[in-house]
Amino acid sequence: MTSEPRTLALAKRVLDEYAAVRESLPAGVVSAARRQEAIQSLAAQGLPVTREENWRYSNLRPLERARFIPVAAADPMPLPVLPPGGELPARLTGFARHVFIDGTYAPQLSSPLEAPGLTLRNLRSSTAPAHPPRARPASGSPPEARLALLTEAFATDTTSIHVSAAAGEPPRVELVFLAVAAADAGASYPRVQVALDPHTRLVLLERHVGAGGGDSFINSSIELEISRGAQLTHYRLQQAGARATWLDTLAAVLAADARYRLLAIHSGALSARSTSYVRMAGAGAELTFSAAALGDRQQVQDNFALVEHLAPHTRTEQTFRGIASGRARVAFNGKIAVRESAAGTDSRQSLRGLLAGPEAEIDVRPQLEIYTDDVRCSHGATAGKLDESMLFYLLSRGLAPEVAQRLLKWAFLEDVVSRIEIPDLRRQIERDLAGQMADAASLKELL
Amino acid sequence: MLKIDNLHVKVDGKEILKGLTLTVPTGEVHAVMGPNGSGKSTLANVLAGRPGYEVTAGSVRFEGRDLLALAPEERAREGVFLGFQYPVEIPGVNNVYLLKAAVNAVRKHRGLDEVDAFEFLTLVREKMRLMRMEESMLSRGVNEGFSGGEKKRNEILQMLVLEPKLAILDETDSGLDIDALKVVANGVNTLRSPERSLVLVTHYQRLLDYIVPDHVHVLVKGRITRSGDKSLALELERRGYDWVSGEAA
To answer: CB A319: neighbour CB atoms within 10 A?
Structure first.
């Protein structure tokens, strides 16, 4: 049909737009050579299309309308300010905060933190060289991760976090990416690189929020390298604006005995797609990957996760809970690959979707590729409606049907939300989710 | 309090209740006994408004109002309580939250302010001691990981906190050992009062040793075939359900 020429036309447009701005893109963030390499690699692969197996649940139409040129291409950029009515999430105790508006660092809204062993640089404004990731997770990535190349080519800033020593409590860092600009003003490219040296720890909170109600286009990329025995706790909250397009690529590499606790909650954007690619590269590495997604109205919340077990005795525990209301589509496509070199792998996957609207869609899909006999894998995927007997039980105790339904949806997410170890953050998320599940005054009082 | 007249109910197209008539005056405790499949649980569920139960004829009046016209939550707020035979587990919904939400739903319906949090907890703790429940059960999910006996105690706890006008207890004695049965019966007995009615749906006479009914009805094949005082239950125990089953044919 017409999709082939359309794809080509799109790739050409990306190249053209890149050519138009490449001179003004800051070399201190990504070198010109590296940018060129990225854009060419992306053009050669083409932008993703829903005909591809692992993109079929996405809404990729916004790509066709997007203006790929960054909002923040001008150099130097004027100081970004919060738009009228724009609000940042409440601050949490003990967290350094770095705020970006449409891809530009907003120092007046940020509060950096001095912590022993922690180096955090925003590369656009930093003169010191970044800590180079030793193993580039993006190289040799699967095609599902190729939107990271778009960010690499167009990035206007990069937050580089390096933890080189462990002392006492792990440092806590919060990154807030606020999107304000409408899509026709350009895209924003949040970009984060995290490197944990051996036996260090970090708590990272990454928020994507919106203001102004525009149809912002965000393409985010985060690369994480967790060295031997290091521990990263990573919270990701996607609360982009109601009309936004949010595309995201996470690539992580775990060395021996590294521990990565990843917890993501996706509730924002009109069209969201998150790709996670985690390589369990060292023996004994452990991944706990919990995710929840809420879709309402016409929202599309698509998630693809590839966990690749490359080393012996690596463990993965993956939990997904998704709720689709209205006409929303919520998808989690979780692929686990156990290579021949990964004997003794233990992988558990529990994917559950809740259909809360007659026109809603849930797609939960476990995929397994196992190349060794010595593995333990348990996998469950279910999609269903609210449990009628639970609902009747609550009604029989006098609860209004709306409250009962909301309570059950809430309970459904508990498997993920209860894993949030920071009480303040957990309360904040509970409040946000309660608000998300309609005007929930009556539910909030229960919490 | 409760007046059921010629009630016919179908479940999955099959008629289960076939003209059941039963009157429970205010302040009385009535036991409905019957063999398996006689329609006991159907009666309990249809009174609480469970979906899937189709009333094809007859009427149910509660305090003079048409009970069947009310949604399940409205029945609960009017003071009808069903103690479930198989209380469902709801992980993630906290026991005490549900209790509080239930109490507030009733209070709101009556035009009262929300319950004071401190007084509420004091009351709940007192009732829990009566039911010999550990306080830690409050902070768990509704019935989550509870044993059969704990679930039944939790049902009675809810009843004690909600103080319904009419409580229908569906086989609350099933699966209880003798000690738990005594605790449950003791809890139920504290609620007996001249303003309140109780319907005990049960297969066995045993529960009635501890909660002595004013009247006993025998339900066979969807109809009440025999009514009497508590001695009827003893006679049933002695002679078995075969004694009454033949009569309904």
So the answer is: 20
